[in-house]
Amino acid sequence: MRGYRNLAAFVILAVVCPVSPSAGQEQVFRINNTAEPESLDPALVTGVPEHRIIGNLFEGLTTSDPKDLSPRPGMAASWTVSRDGLVYTFKLRDARWTDGKPVTAHDFVYAWERVLNPKTGAKYAQQLFYLKNGEDYNKGRISDFTQVGVKALDDRSLQVTLRCPTAYFLDLTSFYTLYPVPRRTIEAHGKDWVKPGRIVSNGPFRLVSWVPQKDLILEKNPQHWDAAAIKLQKVIFLPTDDLNTAYKQFLAGESDWVPTVPPAQLDAARNRPEFYVMPYLGTYYFRFNLTKPPITDVRVRKALSMSVDRESLTKYVTKAGEIPSSTFVPAGMRGYEGGRGLPFDGAGAKKLLAEAGFPDGRGFPKVEVLYSTSELHRVVTQAVQQMWKEHLGIQMDLTNVEWKVYLARQGSLDYQISRAGWIGDYVDPNTFLDMWITGGGNNQTAWSNKRYDDLIAQAACKIVNAKDRMQTLREAEKILVADEVPIMPLYTYVNKGMLSRRVKGWWPNILDQHPLKFISLER
Fold this sequence. Notes:
This protein is of the alpha+beta class. The chain is about 30% helix and about 20% strand.
């Protein structure tokens, strides 16, 4: 079945509401996080492994409901919105940092200026372009941050002015890029402020230990405003990037949750009660670096995309119900009908490659495909490599690197082709499309298209009618996946993992977000 129209039909495991732990039972939750985190700085990270940790160390103005992902009060106890949808006034609760000092509206102003300041190098700075003058400040068109639409009216009141009404703004305020950060700690320790013994945070958990390549340990934060509701005493993140090893650790009782099952273990996993599979608002794709020939030729990029049989890839390689797709926005978002990407057409792909100067692949130079350490990424890239050889007569070199190196190389355009994945930050097509604007921090392809930029800008602020807005986004997506092809979508993800039956308060949702605050363990 394509899309997410019938969520219930996909869910094999649904975990019920939290229960009170047995008296005296040790509440230690062990997560195999599949990678060593790049950083714990909310302004700098972009990955899912980091999000799982940071989303529990820090808390934004709002948080996400663990069942339906709707915004609920976080640091803000309440808020009001002006009639025109432009001005939000947040009333902060009496909350504390882990060092006992109060969380104030000024902490948010500082954090948001830090993200927008180009010196910080925040890849997610565009998440604050929704603020009045936010993009202008980031691009250097204005230098006075007081002109940006965020202001501390007093210690407990934060006023936010948007450049245009943004229906999903309260979803953004629960995203880690918009979290508050402690100015005094950052100024005292610089980039080392996130290390154990130095980090100051405001979430339901606090960092107590981080031994790279071994584990990262959080403990319940007694300073948190809702500490009484937190059941877990300790959370241990294991960075095992070998999925087969992670799977074995789970079977041996050494972890309580592994969020990904390697393809080779899927048949065995399906027979176990801990296994689950469910929809995921994410796309698996390859990036093309448009500064590296022969990738600079759009005919080459189209040939590479058209020579991949996505149906076979998901049926015989990934094998967990992934949805083959040549479009970037996952199907099924309410009100959005995505365009069509490039079809599988081996003969057409071969013709395009010949037109680019490489008939039957002759003369095609060595090209490297970069991927991060994971059994899934290995088998997918190998399968695509074989399809390119079969249909185009070309041989690609595969290079495997660990997570931090992969992120660094991709971010500095030190690659030719790179496997990638994108998980939506909120349930709207924009979260998949605005990242490809010229100079976007998460673009990382060097691709630029003025028409595309204009369409995204129009959809953001200039189009009021919802149907017209979706049509504008659809036109932008066609440029992305069919006309210019800086990326090659392969399939829509599904979540497939293993969760201990002792775990309660873990609900399935399409963003795979499971706040630890609501989780507990029973005997």
